[in-house]
Amino acid sequence: MKLKVLLRIIGVVQLVLGLMYLFIPMKFLGMMGHSIPQADIAYPLGMLAARFLAYGVGMLFIAREPEKQLFWINNMILIQVLDLAVGIFYTATGIVGLSHSGFPMFNATLFIILLTLWRPKATAGTTG
Description:
Layout: H1 2-23, H2 25-31, H3 42-62, H4 70-92, H5 98-118
Helix pairs in contact: 1-2, 1-3, 1-5, 4-5
């Protein structure tokens, strides 16, 4: 049950990020305290939004029967590991301040730990 709740929370987070990057990308960057790029960057941010939205819907779907979705749970762990690594790199090099990266890095770390601990064990009927 706790894994299902976690997957739904992650799904909602992905959907919110997707909606923000799709509909108000520049305002959203400003709300997070980032510098505002040129307007043409809204295009790749829109493409990023599509991935957030697809994975958000996917996490909600996966939450129904997580024991059959080990591959996708492992993919979300990989996404969070990469998110954390990017956050550590840009924070350590001084490009992004901890005030901007701290919360996302905390979320990534929390999601990595909980997904790893709570993911279903691989059996003959699962992949991963």
